[in-house]
Amino acid sequence: MDIIGTILWPLKWVVSAILVGFYWIFESIGMDPSAGITWVLSIIFLTFVVRAALIPIFVRQIKSQRRMLEVAPQLKKIQDKYKGKKDQFSREAMSRETMALYKETGTNPLSSCLPLLLQMPIFFSLYSVLHEAQINKTGIGLLTNDLAASFGNAALFGAPLHETFTNASGWEVRAIAGFMIVVMTASQFITQLQLVAKNMSPETKESPMYRQQKMMLYILPLVFVISGLSFPLGVMFYWLASNLWTMAQQYFVIRSMPTPGSEAALAREARLAKKAQRRGTATPVLAEAGAGVGATEIEPVRVTTQRQQPVGKQRQKKNGKK
């Protein structure tokens, strides 16, 4: 076993255990153990469990990216200040001001990449377990060789899960794979479009980072189109479920925790103002409705929170004489 295989071995064991666990659950409720739908549902629920476990890392990544987007306009000012200056003194001054900005704002350009790097071993383990089970019919951990062979030989609507779009033996594989590639590409495009169009401030949209994000809007879907042609159907179900999870997760984050000054932030403020206005007008409407049915007018009672001081006996007698 190579070094990468040794590092991924514990993760692959956990992934295979979760996959087999869902497979046993679906088998216990009466689903056909050799049917492709049983394995597809197991893959989808496995993906959801893994992505749910990665939510804390995702939140940290979102916060890091947001801080980088917020300081992007200030970084641009520093770059414009030293634009065209290639002498050693100017480069050192630009580096010092950039590091001072990072320190002042508590940002780190590498912090947004770290969560992604932590996710990669898990994603490689997922892909490795599914790919080896389908292609080599070999299992790991609770995913025995017999279960791996069952997974590799399973078919969905007549399409074997181990086949790809490029080496398909029938039109069923190409039809399902083509549909999934379209959905994967569309979900990736929508996910990136949400970030670029709605969750960036006007200042950020004038920075070089915005141009990079806009470029990724078209590059990432193209990557899924090319790679999807060579992915087995079983692996593609994992990627599709993961993409849909990412799209829904980012929609929730942008809606509830948008970047300040962005279009999403303005929309959220408008929603909160509308809700506050509805709550503010609810009481007068109810009062008018109550008055119309003969309700008696109730004077408001003023409640004081001032604490009454105790009065001594001598002072009570003195007040009584008066």
Poorly predicted sequence stretches spanning 5 or more consecutive residues: 282-307
Structural class, by secondary structure, is mainly alpha
Overall radius of gyration: 30 Å
Beta strands, count: 2
Helical coverage, percent range? over 70%
Description:
By secondary structure, the protein is mostly helical. Helices cover 72% and strands 1% of the residues. The protein has one domain (3-269). The protein has 11 helices and 2 strands; from the N terminus they run ααααααββααααα. A hairpin with a 2-residue loop joins strand 1 and strand 2. The protein is elongated and about 65 Å long. Residues 282-307 have low confidence and may be disordered.
In short:
The chain has helices spanning 3-28, 36-53, 55-81, 88-105, 114-135, 145-153, 171-198, 208-228, 233-256, 263-291, 313-321; strands spanning 155-156, 159-160.
Show the helix and strand layout.
Layout: H1 3-28, H2 36-53, H3 55-81, H4 88-105, H5 114-135, H6 145-153, E1 155-156, E2 159-160, H7 171-198, H8 208-228, H9 233-256, H10 263-291, H11 313-321
Antiparallel strand pairs: 1-2
Q: What attributes characterize this protein structure?
A:
single chain, 322 residues, mainly alpha, two-stranded antiparallel ribbon, elongated
